[in-house]
Amino acid sequence: MRILNIYFLLFFTISPFSAKLQVIQNDSINKIDNVFISDTILPQNVKIDTAQIFDSISKNSHFYKDSIVNIETGKDSLNSLTADSLNNDSTYFVKINKQYLKSYYFDTRDIIISPTRWNNKQWLTFSGLALSFPFLLRYDDDIQKYVQKRRTSSMDRFSANYLEPWGSGYYSMSTMALFYLYGSAFKKNRIKKVAMLGVKTYIVTGFMVLFPKNLLGRHRPYQDNPANPYSWNGFLGGRSFVSGHTTSIWGVSTIVASEYKDKPLVPVICYTIASLSSFSRIYDNKHWLTDVLGGAFFGYAMGKLIYNANNWKLKVIPYSNGNNVGLDITYPLGLSKN
To answer: What residue ranges define each of the domains in the chain, with the CATH number in brackets?
Structure first.
């Protein structure tokens, strides 16, 4: 097995305020003309897996078409561009535009068809989780009874005021709004990008979760007396599986944790909030244990899919050969068999 690299050359059309980047593949077989990197998806640390690039070029052309990256050079020359300046948080403009709005559709589509692209490891993981479901289902009733017997008025208030709002979107979307405002005010495009992806993930997961909820029709714990975890009534018969609150908070938390994985405390905080908010759905008697576990897996998976689809990992190196100034971009193709 070997790791392949493909090198790309970026040609610039310079103005005093921005640079238009055109990507041309530098090999003797194929040439990609008139392709532009979207300013809504280029990450701070400009790096990406190439297998995804070629797949996206053929199947997700919205990433490229009529889209550009603006570079704040402040000069009419590329001489001021360095590797450090390219990775600087203020180098890239992140904004809500047509490409960003269109990406809602394409990311949703990619989530729906993602099983057709799963590898053996992903299918094995899914199969293991599916097979564990009947085993976990046996404990739904015991967990529900155990938790409900230990409810207190103070914990009820804590759950209602500090845990549930994260899943409902009140706290999570308020946080994303603050991220966006802070990023806009202080030109911190990394945090601004996180806000945009967080909002998109919240909306997309909220839409996707409607399918299992309405198709499976599971009753919530409070709907039957006594509560019955085996009450599955089919289409529109209930809305318990999976937990929408859990799906949403795990999706948004995954976006933030994935972007700031270089800061170890951030993922810990994100997943702790997601876990506590998820537990509140059991505590409040709104969901069964398996509803919450299914929502956590569903939200995490969709958060990762959306994050990876919108964060490519390229290595950008400025160069000069005496006559021309430009950038080399290296994409790791990944492992392939000889």
So the answer is: 2-103+312-336 (no CATH), 108-309 (1.20.144)
